[in-house]
Amino acid sequence: MKNLNYKDFVKIYLFPLIGTWLNKIGVPWKKLGHSFLGRESMIGQLRYLVEGKSLSLKSSESQTILILSITCGNTYNLCMEILIGIGLRLRGHEVKFILDDFQLPITTDMKAGNESNWKSIAQKGFWFGRQMIKAGGFEVIYTSNLLNQVLSDVNPNDYKDIIEASLLKHYKVGILDNIDKGELAERTLLFKKAVVQTAKLGKAIIKMQPDCTIMSTGIYSTWGPIRQVLNDADIPVLVYSKTKKKNSEKFNWSYAADWWDVEEEWNKVKEIKLSSEEMAQIDAYLESRVTHKDDTLVYNFGGLEDKEKTLRRFNLDGDSPIFSLFTNVLWDAASAQREIAFDNPIDWVYETIQWFIEKPNLQLIVKIHPAEVVIGTNQPFAELISKKFPSLPPNIVIIKPQEKVNSWSIYAITDMGLVHTTTAGMELPLLGIPCIVVSKTHYRGKGFTVDVESKEEYYNIIQSFDFTDYNETTFKKYSKRYAYLLFE
Predict the structure, then answer these.
(1) For the residues of 44-86, what is the DSSP string, one character each?
(2) Given 10, 68, 128, 259, which is the most exposed site by the fewest CB atoms within 10 A?
(3) Residues 6+ apart with CB under 8 A from 362
(4) In Å, how far from its chain's centre is CA 171?
């Protein structure tokens, strides 16, 4: 097969057959998936699941629905899309998949530092995705066929924010200042070409006039331009992504997955008191967040400590104000390009530390997000801070991402939180702790955070915040209702 080496050919075409034969003699599919057959066994399992099945749950008029897999480097997302497709087909809809057959010069699967594997990544994603989609009984439409239909030009400058976000993810950094200029120019050109191609894909899809389209994330060069083009044409776009909780998905109409927009719903329910059952439900989940036992990813290392032990651990004075700053992973889409009060998150941290250096009567904790070691970064905050401030006074404490320090232990000793977009900005008000939000995030302006528009306002509030005037009851009430809406 074109672009497929012998080893991958065997895995994609022979392993599913071996898996099917082994399953027929009694070996469970789950066991096969954990054997040498690996994910390729799912191709055989999927054929088994759909062959001869005629069950129909038709509940509406048939619609044409396009699932925009584009790349299939993420096995989880591909499985989600196939399951969604099967469910829609059972309801009588016509479902087709769009798959990139090596037309995009760069995708979100291709990371900096791994250039030698880019070709292999694209090939494996394509052939595995193609066989999975076909095993599910779906028609595959290739990007080469669609791009041939679009002759109009696309200006890559219309997608500057998407190109920048793609570069940040590609390099896993928050700012691009330290990237080699020649290499950065070359990668920027690749992403410009990519957004031109995906914007053209969006235009070709418009010509097909689907009733609905479905995609993962809806961000970066691979999906962002398509989503924008389809939104402009009023073609419904459903974007899905993992949520914070295990075994659940988040679906957005029109918006990208990095934005948790519940503004309309919040305005309907913010004044409605939670029932005792709802209160018990959200309290149980919030308690689980201490260890993340019910979450997709674990970001809290270490168990809870009592307040006095935490103060002693970091040599802090419980009688003097403690401000806790919680960072984000710089390149993550949920935190990148969200600036309001500061130019970027790095400047925010630098300038805050410098301000507290000059205020020895106030204490600052900078807790670096553990996600830096969970999902990775090429711009670790601890190194940035250490380079900028080789020595720090005792009123400033830096907690590195790998340290076994639970965020909830830090909340317990905090008088005021300082956040960019992290979930800590939602959790602190739940405990009655005021929290300043310096950037654009979904929970900003919901009635339980202290939102600032400028550096001056930010420092003035830190310097002169009246804790006696802080309405703890109101902040707790609204933050709990918002948490229930968002998580449950």
Answers:
(1) HHHHHHHTT-------S---EEEEEEE----HHHHHHHHHHHH
(2) 10
(3) 320, 321, 323, 356, 395, 462
(4) 16
3-state secondary structure of 339: strand
Say if strands 249-253 and 237-242 run parallel, antiparallel, or are unpaired: antiparallel
How high does pLDDT run on average in the chain? Answer: 91
How far is residue 157's CA from residue 479's CA, in Å, rounded to a whole number? 39
**pLDDT category, 60, cuts 50, 70, 90?**
low
3-state helix, strand, coil in the chain (%, to 5): 45, 10, 40
Q: How far apart are CA 409 and CA 424, in angstroms?
A: 12
Q: What is the pLDDT of residue 1?
A: 47
What is the rounded CA–CA span in Å between residue 51 and residue 56? 14
Q: For residue 147, give both structure tokens.
A: 């791009």
Q: Give the type of residue at 486.
A: L
Give the long-range contacts of residues 449-455, CB within 8 A, separation 24 or more.
449/425, 452/340, 452/341, 453/340, 453/341, 454/341, 455/341, 455/342, 455/351
Are 345 and 188 spatial neighbours (Cβ–Cβ below 8 Å)? no
Q: List 451's β-bridge partners, or say none.
A: 437
- What number is the average pLDDT over the span 77-86? 95
CA distance 367 to 371: 11
Arithmetic mean of pLDDT, 391-404: 94
Angle subtended at Cα 401 by Cα 172 and Cα 410, rounded to the nearest 5 degrees? 135
End-to-end Cα distance, the chain: 47
Provide the edge-to-edge strand list for the sheet that holds 416-419: 396-399, 363-367, 322-326, 416-419, 435-437, 450-451
Distance CA 374, CA 376 (A): 6
Let me know how long the chain is. 488
Residue 426 is classified by DSSP as H
As a dihedral over the C-alpha atoms of residue 441, residue 443, residue 445, residue 451, rounded to 10 degrees, the angle is -60
State the residue for tokens 């196939």. 82
Residues 6+ apart with CB under 8 A from 66: 95, 96, 97, 98, 141, 205, 208, 210, 212, 213, 214
Residue partners of 395: CB distance under 8 A and separation at least 6: 356, 359, 360, 361, 362, 363, 364
